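Supplementary notes for students who missed Thursday's class. We covered one full example, reproduced here. Read the sequence, then the structure, then the short commentary at the end.
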Amino acid sequence: MHKHLPSVTIILVFGLLAGLCFVSPGRATPKTKDAEQIVQPIPPPAWMKPDQFKYIMEGRPDPFVPFIEPKVATKINPDEIVEEKGNLTGMQQFEPGQLTLVAVLFTDGKKMAMVEDVTGKGYILTKGNLIGRHGIVSRIDKRRVVITETAHTRSGKAIISTIVMRLNQEGDQ
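Structure (token representation):
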């Protein structure tokens, strides 16, 4: 009989431990069946009451708009003329349309032309002078000055145009 005693003791100890696990301390059971526990809901705090909270949009940013704006992809036109950076000096500050040819001079085999701006101030042009953003004086004849403008696009294509300034004779308008 003593042989089975340790196994019975172990079973009883495990049974007691299992029973203690399912009984929670601090929970009292009603002493009578007539007494029922009445559970009342806890009222929400004052800041959570729906009739007291109103979001005023005036003067505030929209909370649903992202803080960081995505970069807008722009289409690059390969035929767009690229302006060269740098300071414009001398006659580069004037476009040919802003000048009037008033005289052409031939001295010692050198050809020169005199032009005026809109204020009446005069300037001397010779072959090879830079004029405007893209122009160069390419030829001076008896009655005209030929300016060749070369502009470059984003794709590297050169756009060449020719501007002719003519000398007005007396009586021409």
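Commentary. The beta strands are 100-107, 110-116, 122-126, 130-131, 135-140, 144-152, 158-166. The chain has one helix and seven strands. If anything here is unclear, bring it to office hours.
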